[in-house]
């Protein structure tokens, strides 16, 4: 087989979308709309550039080169290995994977708040609930991640359609409330809304995820009958474009809802509070249930995809342990990190991403731009160094 049917290409695109679309993808767009207010269109365009266009370009670059390590090898072979490990740790067990459980748990506050502030066997009951939820969450994710080649069936065919229906229902309810006033523009967005939106897109981690997910998407494309590496790369790029279309559409909906939420979410500190207020207004007592389902499905999809991708990477680079051993090591480590809580994880991730993201963008750009001089090792090292310095100064 030389190419996939459009039905299977769509399935691959939806699977890739589900692996991208997690906690940050849900909470940051509405908060951008809420803070940008009347200039939310410009802020959204900046956000879409870093959270949609760059991930699609990342998928394209990795597909053309054949992997993250090959994407970086022109800089230096040792840099390629070290940078790849840093990317996989950040997008995996150190930041992104633990954040999926923490964010998902935070959406069940309408249930966990009822537990009160007592203790259970000397452990605060809220902490005990957090540990139990994370344990069940990661156990299920680790089990599902056992078969990377079946993600297109589990995530693409089953979980993601449910997620999209729930999000569209929330957006449709927002359209019926068009009379809601537009939020006032916050000071941070008043002068350079496009640039502010662009940097906020870092928090989704999708550009880094793009250079990570290619390995699992390739496995799923092979499972559909494609064997030639060039054909796999082409089908991966097609899937990336479709995933980008879905991401841009959903981001636009969430940004719109955030911009219209000022009267319902006064004083909101994050996107979670905004979406919670909107769902309570739109759906009454069923609102928290709807929103918790949206977050759970989105976060679970991303968690499974990241566990698969990171486990395959570490099993290839450090074959002393196999895929299954790495799968459970990364799952267990992510479980312990998730107990720190969402706020702690976001506080740690922000400066780290500010440094790594410019370097990732620079590497993707140098591999895609059709200029021969950009392929020279000396040029790539200078560009990476400048990107690293820019990231340091952006903290």
Topology:
Elements: H1 6-20, H2 23-36, H3 40-65, H4 68-72, H5 77-94, H6 96-106, H7 109-112, E1 119-120, E2 123-124, H8 125-144, H9 151-175, H10 187-190, H11 193-200, H12 206-223, H13 229-259, H14 271-283, H15 287-317, H16 323-338, H17 342-368, H18 377-394
Antiparallel strand pairs: 1-2
From N to C, what is the helix and strand string?
A: HHHHHHHEEHHHHHHHHHHH
Give the strand order of the largest sheet, numbering strands 1, 2, ... along the chain. 1-2
Give start-end ranges of low-pLDDT stretches: none
Strand runs, count: 2
Describe the protein in words.
With 395 residues, this protein is mainly alpha-helical. It contains 18 helices and 2 strands. It is 77% helix and 1% strand. The relative contact order is 0.21.
């Amino acid at each position: 087989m030389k190419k996939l049917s459009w039905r299977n290409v769509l399935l691959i695109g939806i699977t890739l979308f589900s692996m991208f679309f997690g906690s940050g993808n849900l909470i940051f767009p509405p908060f951008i709309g809420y803070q940008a207010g009347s200039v939310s269109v410009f802020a959204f365009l900046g956000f879409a550039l870093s959270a949609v266009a760059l991930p699609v370009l990342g998928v394209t670059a990795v597909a053309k080169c054949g992997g993250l390590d090959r994407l970086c090898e022109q800089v230096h072979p040792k840099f390629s290995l070290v940078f790849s490990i840093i990317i996989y740790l950040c997008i995996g067990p150190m930041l992104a994977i633990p954040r999926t459980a923490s964010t998902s748990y935070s959406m069940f506050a309408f249930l966990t708040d009822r537990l009160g502030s007592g203790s259970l066997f000397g452990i605060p009951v809220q902490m005990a609930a957090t540990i139990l939820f994370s344990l069940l969450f990661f156990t299920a994710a680790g089990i599902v991640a056992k078969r990377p080649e079946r993600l297109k069936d589990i995530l693409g065919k089953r979980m993601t359609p449910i997620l999209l229906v729930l999000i569209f229902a929330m957006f449709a309810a927002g359209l019926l409330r068009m009379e809601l006033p537009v939020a006032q523009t916050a000071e941070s967005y008043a002068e350079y809304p496009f640039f502010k939106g662009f940097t906020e897109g870092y928090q989704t981690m999708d550009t880094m995820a793009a250079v990570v997910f290619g390995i699992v998407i390739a496995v799923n494309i092979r499972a559909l009958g494609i064997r030639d590496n060039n054909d796999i790369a082409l089908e991966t790029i097609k899937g990336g474009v479709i995933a980008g279309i879905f991401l841009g559409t959903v981001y636009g909906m969430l940004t719109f809802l955030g911009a219209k939420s000022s009267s319902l979410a006064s004083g909101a500190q994050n996107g979670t509070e905004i979406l919670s207020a909107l769902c309570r207004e739109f759906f009454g007592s069923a609102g928290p249930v709807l929103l918790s389902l949206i977050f759970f499905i989105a976060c679970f999809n991303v968690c499974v995809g990241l566990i698969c991708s990171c486990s395959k990477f570490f099993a290839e680079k450090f074959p002393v342990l196999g895929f299954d051993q790495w799968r459970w090591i990364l799952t267990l480590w992510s479980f312990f990190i998730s107990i720190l809580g969402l706020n702690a994880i976001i506080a740690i991730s922000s400066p780290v991403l500010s440094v790594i993201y410019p370097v990732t963008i620079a590497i993707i750009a140098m591999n895609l731009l059709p200029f021969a001089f950009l392929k020279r090792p000396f040029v790539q090292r200078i560009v990476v160094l400048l990107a690293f310095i820019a990231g340091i100064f952006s903290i």
